[in-house]
Amino acid sequence: MSDADLDELLRILSLTRIAAILKERLAFAQKDKWTYKRLLKDLLTEERIHRQDRRLRNRIKRAHIPEQWTLETFPYERQPGIDRKLIQELAELDFVKTGTNLVFIALTGRGKSGLAAGLLLKALLNGYTGMLQSTQEILNDLHRSIADRKTKYLLNKYSTMDVLVADEIGYLNLNDDQANLFFKLMDNRYQKGKSTIITTNLGYDDWGAHFRNSPMVEPLKSRIKQRCITITIEGPDLRSPAS
After folding, report:
1. What's this model's pTM, rounded to 2 decimal places?
2. What is the mean pLDDT of the chain?
């Protein structure tokens, strides 16, 4: 078989990593007198690692995580309102395994979205599925899907991922349809035992007005809070030069 034929076969089989390193590894194998079995194992291991890395990069890309938001780079020293030990415990991801929700309550600029994104990234790095999306974007997607009759599909999409970050509840008022859709989404995730991370500038007592005093508000809070860790951040605005 010619080199060109071999390259074509590797391309057809999508063995891109093997194609990239084959000549180098063949030279190593010849020099160090590798067995065929060792060479094959080495090539296949490299291909497996490459595919795992590619899948992880794709998961992170689809999750819409701002690249700079990690738990390791969070400015804890500038935000005394954060219990760093608690965040480190959450980073062990037991909350994902148990389907426990996290609710970060704070004014804008206190770091709640950064922490939520950092925890989501930890989950993705450990093989879980997830996404960060503003609550308004989630509900806009669901509301638009009514006309296309794709609501069931979208609810399933948002309901089955292991971790969903519903960012910024409370910054825009919701209409009745959106309030009902959000309740349905949270109810689905509750029933499936999935973890939702919510960031909001509203305390629980203020949710009624945001959801237009919908009769769904109390059942919604009940489902979220039944398995939930609430983290209230009272500290300086990290976006302020004076902080």
Report:
1. 0.81
2. 90
Beta bridge partners of 159: none
Sign of CA dihedral 62, 63, 65, 67: negative
* 130-134 and 228-232 strand pairing: unpaired
What is the CATH number for 213? Answer: 3.40.50.300
**Residue 140, C-beta contacts closer than 8 angstroms, at least 6 positions apart:** none
The encoded tokens of residue 207 equal 């949710």
Distances, alpha carbon 238 to alpha carbons 65, 113, 116, 201, 234, in Å: 19, 12, 15, 15, 12
* 8 Å CB contact between 134 and 167: yes
Q: Provide the edge-to-edge strand list for the sheet that holds 101-105.
A: 130-134, 163-169, 195-200, 101-105, 228-232
The answer to whether residues 69 and 114 touch, using CB atoms and an 8 Å cutoff, is: yes
Domains held by the chain: number: 2
